[in-house]
Amino acid sequence: MIFAGHQIGEDYMHELLELLDLHSYSIVVISKSGTTTEPAIAFRILREHLIRKVGKEEAKQRIVAVTDASTGALRKLADDEGYRSFVIPDDVGGRFSILTPVGLIPLAICGTDIRQLIAGAAEMREGCDPGVPFEENPALLYAATRNALYRTGKKIEILVNYNPKLHYLAEWWKQLFGESEGKEGKGIFPASVDNSTDLHSMGQYIQEGERILFETVISVEQTRHSVHIPRDESNLDQLNFLSGKNIDQVNKMAELGTILAHMDGGVPNIRLSIPDISERSLGQLLYMFENACGISGYLLNVNPFNQPGVEAYKKNMFALLEKPGFEKETARIKSRM
């Protein structure tokens, strides 16, 4: 699975096309409207490349569209060309759509057991039901805690993981909370670190920088594999005291030691424990974050389901590109330059 349409890097696209020249491939295009700039540009280029490579009729069999049920440019193209398609629900915004075909189709293609993912989400939905008492409801606890910290001046939340497989979950989390809460001059700024790697870069600031942040640590109880540290007779690295231990034991102590150090340094920590990095556990975590995000937005007294601020850059970009219909904006911006 290789991503395109999530940025507008020309060199990235050129190198991707060179790579695709050497491989057989299919395209999954995901866009509710079909006119969002980044994915629309990428799809136009990749569709043309695929047609040149395999012919128009074969390309039709290799393109899957995930889009609106009845309207939009991509829906029309999918219907006209006969692409297989899946529907994005009307009432689900992009950042909340990971448990719809938007997220499930790519995950299934990568071999993820999406039934287990959904099963985990369904379990967490029951756990986050409004009828579940506050002290037992993970979404309510998380939303309330982070907002309580925000009201004491903690403006930045850092999502911390100690397993590299969680890196892109943190990237999704940043969009989820940043786009949902950052409006009307309010909101907790979402950031993330991959530890223990980032302890050697951001660790200094977190320990002794401005006291405007708190951390939420995703702690994984069990690893899938076990790798033990061997004994070395020379012991030049002075690590024989770790011989016989598995790597995760060291990782867990790095996690605990860091939590204690940061709390001693004035950084509050929230710890979210998951059993493992399985589809079921991740489904639970994804649903909890989405549910908590909605609650948290309302605690801030903002609408967590809109994103009016993202239109500002688009208007300027279209004006600078002299898109038809933006003539007044083009003249206004050029007068400033």
Could you explain how this protein is built, in words?
This protein has helices spanning 10-20, 37-54, 56-62, 73-81, 101-109, 114-127, 138-150, 167-181, 203-208, 247-264, 279-299, 310-320, 327-336, and strands at 27-30, 63-67, 84-87, 156-161, 189-194, 213-220, 269-274. The protein is built from 13 helices and 7 strands. By secondary structure, it is α/β, with parallel strands linked by helices. It folds into 2 domains: 1-88, Glucose-6-phosphate isomerase like protein, domain 1 (Rossmann fold, 3-Layer(aba) Sandwich), CATH 3.40.50.10490; 126-299, Rossmann fold, CATH 3.40.50.10490. 27% of the residues are buried. The mean pLDDT is 97. It has a 4-stranded parallel beta sheet, sandwiched between helices.
What key phrases describe this protein's structure?
337 residues, alpha/beta, Rossmann fold, 3-stranded parallel β-sheet, 12% strand
Number of domains: 2
- CATH topology annotation of the largest domain: Rossmann fold
The largest sheet is:
4 strands, parallel
Tell me, what's the shape?
Answer: globular
Count of DSSP helices?
13
What's the CATH C level of the largest domain?
Alpha Beta
Helicity range: 40-55%
Low-confidence stretches: none
H/E element sequence: HEHHEHEHHHEHEHEHEHHH
Widest beta sheet: strand line-up:
5-4-6-7
Average pLDDT level: 97
Number of distinct beta strands: 7
Radius of gyration: 23 Å
Question: What class, by secondary structure content?
Answer: alpha/beta
Fourth CATH level, the homologous superfamily of the largest domain: Glucose-6-phosphate isomerase like protein, domain 1
| N-to-C CA distance | 41 Å
Q: Based on the coordinates given, report the CATH architecture of the largest domain.
A: 3-Layer(aba) Sandwich
Estimate the strand proportion. 5-15%
